[in-house]
Amino acid sequence: EPPLFSGLLFYFIGDYEASYKGSLQDLVLAGGGRLLQNDSCSRSSDDESKSRDSTIIVYSQVYPEGVMEVDSVIEQRLKEAVSLAAETGGKVVSHTWLLDSIAACQLQPTI
Question: Which is one GO molecular function term here (predicted)?
Answer without folding.
Answer: ubiquitin-protein transferase activity
